[in-house]
Write a structure and sequence with these properties.
Blueprint (H helix, E strand, L loop, with lengths): L2 H13 L3 H32 L2 H17 L7 H10 L5 H29 L3 H19 L3 H7 L3 H25 L3 H24 L9 H31 L2 H17 L4 H12 L3 H38 L7 H9 L1 H17 L3 H26 L1 H22 L4
Helix pairs in contact: 2-8, 2-11, 2-12, 3-10, 3-11, 4-5, 4-7, 4-10, 5-6, 5-10, 6-9, 7-8, 7-9, 8-9, 10-11, 10-16, 11-14, 12-15, 13-14, 13-15, 14-17, 15-17, 16-17
């Protein structure tokens, strides 16, 4: 046996972890996450450099509202589909996408209603954007379910390749519109159409991967439960931008969006670990799954601390460099949010892998709803009291609460 394999064997024995499995599959997701993060970063730079704070703030406000309306696309169905496919129930992909489209109609109606409201209120630009978005919403937010199916098949390399292509081509399409047009309506249409076109194509390719028509009706029910419990957390995740946009204005929302964009994207660095862990945890007993995660939790905390410290030290330099001096005021807010990564990253392995893999609906309801309600209360109270600083502090306090509450649910503290 060569020295490298001996070294890997020793690591596997020490960490009690199938390191070869994680290296083989996580590397694709990590690279994909890097590509997606890079494309999002470039897009935000294009907005900051070529458009005004007002337009960038309006764009983020529109995406935040659409993000909340995506609740109707049953966004919790992905985890249920991954688990069902991991247990050989491929037919759940068709059943799941049909269910998602059926409920998406409500989201389109809601988007149309928001558009009419803003149009009648005299905000014609926002009104038009929301009314046009109502036509695209079901198509732009549903086809990405192909990724959940491929995760269940453990085809992480293929899922990563599809996401990379989608991210790069979407960036090119939206970037060209920003540079040559700068019109908010054109930008929103291009963003939604790119998602529909590219993810629809990859969904069609994924259909060829189905090996059986076996269905798991319990998975659909589980997916609806997850979507319902996700609804409060989705609202909480988007509430900060909506509160800033309404109470403080769109220029302040642009400043906050710059401050929060990189921390929010970096917080998903653990997502590849969660995605790769989920199929393995799904076929374990509850006792074994909890034991496996508990042994690795400390290392995630260390990883989070290292990332947080590095980013806090670097952000005073890279934010002005990337976004220009006009976004210098974003730096202190970004530093606070980077501190929050210490609590966000370790928590994700519990909320996105451990609890869902064991179909612990009660714990998922309690964790996501209690945490989200606490964060919403903090957002409203602190935003009214301290403005933009209050919103950032609410995020940090919410992240701290989420970590300790999730540990309490596992009975580890």
């Amino acid at each position: 046996m060569d020295p490298l394999n001996k070294f890997v064997d020793k690591l596997q024995k020490y960490f009690q972890l199938d390191i070869r499995y994680y290296i083989k599959n996580t590397i694709h997701l990590v690279v994909s996450r890097g590509v997606v993060l890079g494309c999002a970063l470039i897009l935000s730079i294009l907005f900051a450099r070529f458009l005004s704070e007002e337009i960038y703030g309006q764009y983020n406000f529109i995406l935040a509202i659409l993000g909340i309306l995506s609740i109707f696309t049953l966004n919790g169905m992905a985890i249920a589909i991954t688990q069902a496919v991991a247990n050989k129930h491929d037919g759940v992909l068709i059943t799941g996408i049909k269910e998602k489209f059926k409920w998406s109609i409500l989201g389109s109606i809601a988007a149309l209603g928001v558009g009419i409201y803003y149009f009648l209120s005299g905000s014609f630009l926002l009104g038009k954007c929301f009314m046009i978005s109502s036509l695209f919403l079901p198509f732009a937010y549903n086809f990405q379910i192909y990724s959940a199916f491929l995760a269940g098949k453990k085809q992480f390399n293929k899922a990563a390749k599809y996401r990379n292509i989608t991210a790069v081509l979407s960036l090119l399409m939206v970037g060209l519109v920003i540079y040559f047009s700068g019109n908010l309506i054109h930008i929103v249409i291009t963003f939604l159409f790119a998602s529909f076109l590219l993810e629809g194509y990859f969904f069609r390719l994924t259909l060829k991967e189905m090996k059986s028509q076996d269905k798991d009706q319990d998975a659909i029910s589980f997916g609806k439960h997850l979507s319902l419990m996700n609804s409060v957390s989705v609202i909480a995740n988007q509430a900060d931008k909506i509160i800033v946009g309404i109470l403080l204005g769109f220029p302040d929302l642009a400043i906050y969006s710059i401050a929060s964009a990189i921390p929010k994207n970096i917080s998903t660095t653990v997502t590849p670990i969660s995605r790769v862990s989920f199929p393995k945890l799904s076929v374990m007993s509850k006792k074994d799954a909890y034991s496996a995660v508990k042994k690795k939790y400390f290392y995630l905390v260390i990883l989070a601390v290292v990332i947080s410290v590095i980013m806090v030290l670097l952000c005073p330099y890279f934010i002005p460099l990337l976004y220009s001096q006009k976004y210098l005021s974003s730096v202190p807010y970004a530093q606070i949010l980077f501190i929050g990564l210490i609590f966000v990253i370790p928590t994700q392995i519990l909320g996105k892998a451990l609890f869902p893999s064991q179909r612990e609906i009660g714990k998922l309801y309690r964790f996501r709803i209690v945490y989200s309600v606490v964060e919403l209360i903090l957002l409203f109270v602190l935003a009214l009291k301290f403005g933009l600083l209050g919103v950032v502090l609410a995020r940090l306090l919410g992240d701290i609460f989420a970590m300790f509450y999730s540990l309490k649910l596992t009975a580890w503290i």
